[in-house]
Design goal:
eight-stranded mixed beta sheet; disordered C terminus; about 425 residues; five-stranded antiparallel beta sheet; Neuraminidase
Length: about 425
Amino acid sequence: MEEASSCSLNSTTLFQQEDAKGITYRIPALLYIPPSCTFLAFAEKRSTVKDEDALYLVLRRGVMRGRSVQWGPLQPLLEATLPGHRTMNPCPVWEQNTGRVYLFFLCVQAHVTERCQIMWGKNACRLCFLCSEDAGCSWGEVKDLTEEVIGSEVKHWATFAVGPGHGIQLQSGRLIIPAYAYYISHWFFCFPCSVKPHSLMIYSDDLGVTWHHGKFIGPQKTGECQVAEVTGRAGNPVLYCSARTPNRFRAEAFSCDCGDYFQKPTLNPQLREPRYGCQGSVVSFRPLKMPDIRQDPSGKDSPTTQKYPLLDSSLEAEEGAGRWLFYSHPTSKKHRLNLGIYCNRNPLEVTCWSCPWILRYGPCGYSDLAVVEEQGLLACLFECGKEHGYEQIDFCLFSDQEVLSCDDCTSPMN
């Protein structure tokens, strides 16, 4: 891989660990609401760094002022709680017709770990959401959707989760919340003997009134995921999914039916996973300036690339669509280090990801991207630190041109 470029921008710390073994903020989720030029930045507040010590969600609201953001104080989201449960995995989505914000999350029994649920095959999670009518200034009552969305199938789900990160609304109006579940395919007496994680989508076709879930993405193991809408054959919408795996590389999959069913995922050797994997974020972005994607920065023709099956990725269709993919993830293949921003200017091609532009050197972790298209900007909310990747959660604004500011970042990775 070619040498990466580094971000020279200043970031803003929104959530800070209070002491080395105490209060910690993890699992960022970021949402931008265009009409009010408002950012909603979410995180989990934990009594320690451990997942089982999550407490409740917290929120900071930010308002765009030119090319900067004015942030309000930290607010606890105590509405997003169930008695006897801890709250985890914020996953917000904005519904543009009604202006509502839906905040999905998990409520997990007491200190029951994910490992314990998988080992015994006994789910301890509830699928919940809140709704805000005023861009996150106030929130309604918590609603438990577990029975509506999963129902009797939950006996085959050792555990599940949403996001973490953001959901999206498709051109069709469908709302999508990315999720994953540990599915039990075989039992031996009272013990699950075959449990595998699979990504899937939770969706609503009636502006958030009712919710359902799609089919599992497989057969490979896929976990935490995010999705973005791109354009396929004859301008038809295609849903792109980027999923965490334990297999050293990121899994990518496409859906031609708005997320109900995905084609078999493919591991992409350009997008490395550290040991055990890490969550990553993806957004679809329409740049203000559209370069000629037929050539690389040196003026030579772009290399021939392999196409995904059943999808038409002609240059004419892509130029008409004019949407790129941006992806954030640690760049090291061994550890959670050096958070990178990758760009794919031809989203349906296997080998068109740029080399990473390093947003933050050093320890890092989970991240979430958002788009401010009216200004040609992207935003990232990400875990980072000096010694560990969970010391703080920072926010940074940047442009697509900054990501593509040097030749190293605009040529395909080796």
